[in-house]
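Quick start: read one record
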Amino acid sequence: MKKIKKGTVEKIEKIAQDTYALEISSDVKEAHAGQFISILCPPKTLRRPFSIKGFKDGKIQVFFRLKGEGTNYIKSLKVGDSVDFMGALGTGFNIENKKSLLVGAGIGIAPMLFLKDELNSKGIENFLITGFKAQNEVIQGSDKTVVGGSVIDYLDEIIKEFKPQVIYSCGPEIVLKLVNQKALEHNIDAFVAMEKVFACQVGVCRGCVIKVKKDGKVQNATICHDGPVFKSSEVVWE
């Protein structure tokens, strides 16, 4: 079991319609794009997972969209308030020295922005495309933003012009499934950060199990513990 940590709210601000950025100071020593933290939101007993958007010197940044009691509790926090959380959890993206195409959809932009920062710090050329349902939901930071349409419709053109050697993505499952199809069509390796509501957050309850192909066999894997990042071609997409 991961150790429960206490953090302090450093900043909380609205960045789009019903969407907020939260920064927590903590004693966390390391975090990478694709990992997440899990925040306790009283009076709820189950923690809420949030992809890490950024990390530096113990300060963790996440984005959250208002959905219910849990996220409304986080919105009510003030600078200086204590935050009970676990993390960094899960497996992050394994960065390779390859020209990288990043694809995000909705709140899935968070780990993509973190990954873009990590790639930039290593001098790895990259291009980030993200999609949002409406203009008031747009979060800044992408090289190309699609509003009201699908990022998938632009991938063939971007792949042709940018010529990526690897694709990374985060967003709703349907987007990740289609990213995988495009990657297979263009013979490019792709890695996806899966999204799902977690219960235990550490792979014990088996509530976030998916099917993956390993060593020629179909096996169970938990998104929260074995992931959230998987090679897209190894996921058994439904």
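The CA atoms of residues 41 and 70 lie 5 Å apart.
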